Amino acid sequence: MFGDIMGMMGKLKETQEKVEATKKRLDSVLIDEASSDGLLKITLTANRKIKNLEIDDSLLEDKEQLEDYLVLTLNKAIEKATGVHEAELAAVAKEGMPNIPGMDGMFK
């Protein structure tokens, strides 16, 4: 019985280390997003850190339009990055979880 608990604890620790390694790796996964007309381009990591912004000069003439572009494009980019982030971490967590009765449907 204690061997099973110790095995599970070891597996959980190993999974936690894999999750941390995955989070670190996601800093190098880049997500690109652009406005529909290509006037604004954003690159961020799968950890949702902005790496680059490209703003067409024409957007600099209208503050309100630029703000709208930023909100829409950033939200789309963050949504994509969040999807990648959550999928990667869920895969690691599911792979590393010990077989605990009653919890098998939790990560499906």
Written account of the structure:
The protein is α+β, with helices and mostly antiparallel strands. The chain has one domain. Helix content is 54%, strand content 16%. The chain contains two helices and three strands. It has helices spanning 2-25, 63-96, and strands at 30-34, 40-45, 50-55. It has a three-stranded antiparallel sheet, covered by helices on one side. A hairpin with a 5-residue loop joins strand 1 (30-34) and strand 2 (40-45). Helix 1 packs antiparallel against helix 2. The chain is rod-shaped. The relative contact order is 0.17. The mean pLDDT is 86.
Features:
alpha+beta, 3 strands, 108 residues, three-stranded antiparallel beta sheet, 2 helices
Percent helix range:
40-55%
What is the count of β-strands? 3
Report the portion of residues in β strands.
15-25%
- Taking all Cα atoms into account, the compactness measure Rg is 20 Å
The number of helical elements comes to 2
Low-pLDDT parts are: none
- The shape, in one word, is rod-shaped
Return the string of H and E elements: HEEEH
Subcellular location: Cytoplasm, Nucleoid
Subunit structure: Homodimer.
Pfam families: YbaB_DNA_bd
Protein name: Nucleoid-associated protein SAMN04487908_12359
